[in-house]
Amino acid sequence: MKKYLVANWKMNPVDLQEAENILSGYLEINLQSDIELVVCPPRIFLRNLIEKSGGKFFWGTQNCFWEDIGAYTGEVSVLQVKKLGAKYVIVGHSERREFLGETDEMVNKKIKAVFLQKLVPILCIGGGKEAKNKKADALKIVKGQLFSALHSLPARTIKNQEFLVTYEPPWALSTVSGNQSAPAKKVAEVSYFIFKLLTKTYGHQVGKQIPILYGGSVNAENIQKFSKKLNLAGFLVGGASLNPKEFAKMVDLME
Ligand code: 13P
């Protein structure tokens, strides 16, 4: 199975010059053919960065709106980011659930819009206010968010289109935890649980093809703890992706 390293730059950096500097560092990365490197910068930089990247990476956006066009002040549609050249859309990130009040219903509408435009959703589950407490029932949260995100989506969509799921507990984000990732045992337990839910719902053949990623303080120091031992298809990386040298190291260590 293909592996994924997804860079979520979040609301960084402050200007295009700096964004281009990070991109220059990325262009030095020695990319193996089985790794899909996906860059999700702030949307305002997307066009410029895609143009400068020479087709080296895949591109994504950190959010989207569910309508294609219309009176939705401040929103950007899946169709608009598709026309810019994005292939992936992060949906339901824990920061959006927590700070922007993104609900399961909104996540469901967004994921449908992404599928409709034939882009690839990177669905984030395990986040939100209720999940902030480390002792919260992660399996219950993940199950609820997964099924509401996929609510009323035909099984043939899941079967025929690319779709990624990421487990991202909010208490493990580098900005919250000071680089304390979730324990490997926890990631193993939750990712296996997601795998079981997917295979039970869509059948083994389909379910096992859906890549499951982990996000939360993954960096060059700890990536092997996850990539060597766990059955993950890749990682969603925030803070460490802003440092191209460290990110390049992570690509090397992902083999
Ligand atoms: P960090 O890697 O900074 O913890 O962020 C993870 C994340 O939120 C990626 O979407």
UniProtKB/TrEMBL annotation:
Catalytic reaction annotation: D-glyceraldehyde 3-phosphate = dihydroxyacetone phosphate
UniProt KW Cytoplasm keyword: yes
Subcellular location: Cytoplasm
Pfam family, one: TIM
GO biological process, one term: glycerol catabolic process
Pathway: Carbohydrate degradation; glycolysis; D-glyceraldehyde 3-phosphate from glycerone phosphate: step 1/1; Carbohydrate biosynthesis; gluconeogenesis
Entry EC number(s): 5.3.1.1
SUPFAM superfamilies attached to this UniProt entry: Triosephosphate isomerase (TIM) (SSF51351)
GO molecular function: triose-phosphate isomerase activity
Enzyme class: isomerase
GO CC annotation: cytosol
Self-association state and partner proteins as the record states: Homodimer.
Family membership noted in the UniProt record: Belongs to the triosephosphate isomerase family.
Protein name in UniProt: Triosephosphate isomerase
Record gene name: tpiA
